[in-house]
């Protein structure tokens, strides 16, 4: 993508060095803290908590915006470059050309407390020990900050009679009225590219105004067709990543889905209260057949799976879902953040900002 040619009234190199330095000083100052925060005295603990929360520090939202301001893709960017050099090209005549900002909600739902919160409160937070749940949440929250979307983490109560994943329909219904789109991800799912906005993906997948739900299919194999298939041998869609659009059909779908286990509309839907795949099976067995035209089903490789999954080519092209190898959620997040941090450092060397690169024509001692 194009880099801005000027930044304010001063030279671009000066502005770059100032902005990059500002960000890096802040980040490296945080990184300079002891790698494992174990505090023997209460005043030490308070000082670390103060450093993390001090209003004198630049808000993390501003740091993230500054890091990504020159590398974030536009909604109608013609193509996205992949690390291997190939490109994901946008179809012609994209519908979404502007960032929707706070009209989009990035939503996390959990009945589990975040282990990282407990560690932080105990003064023991350590990135290296972070589990995949917190790693996934951090990915989603950072993505919202990069693009100016709203973000909510809903800590929901457990059901008494059904699996915890049944919290999804009601939580989506309770928030969709305030937004144009809700983007939901399980904790083991992640945005592959933090710099690619959801508007770009809506364009890439040709999402239309009548689409209430966007989901990716699960992997399917002819060798074991009974897995990930409904009673009609049709492949399930995975509810670990959903784009929900606010239109006239969305609430009826969510209501039907939420009430499905009560067996009022769909006989025998209660069988999916606890057995796998819970709410996903109910959606695949019943809901989608009544609302077919309002549901966009993506190929598995578009927004499900991860590198190394050969079945159905579920490689996680834009959204990755680590059903296994969950630790790689953190790896994806780390690689995205490091790319944003090191790009301005590399530019310093490439453009020799400040004259830090000097040529030594003769290898002699003067």
UniProtKB/TrEMBL annotation:
GO terms for cellular component: Golgi membrane. The keyword Transferase applies. Keywords: Glycosyltransferase, Membrane, Transferase, Transmembrane, Transmembrane helix. GO terms for biological process: protein N-linked glycosylation. It holds the Pfam family Nucleotid_trans. One of its GO terms (molecular function) is glycosyltransferase activity. Residues 165-294 form the Nucleotide-diphospho-sugar transferase domain. This is Nucleotide-diphospho-sugar transferase domain-containing protein.
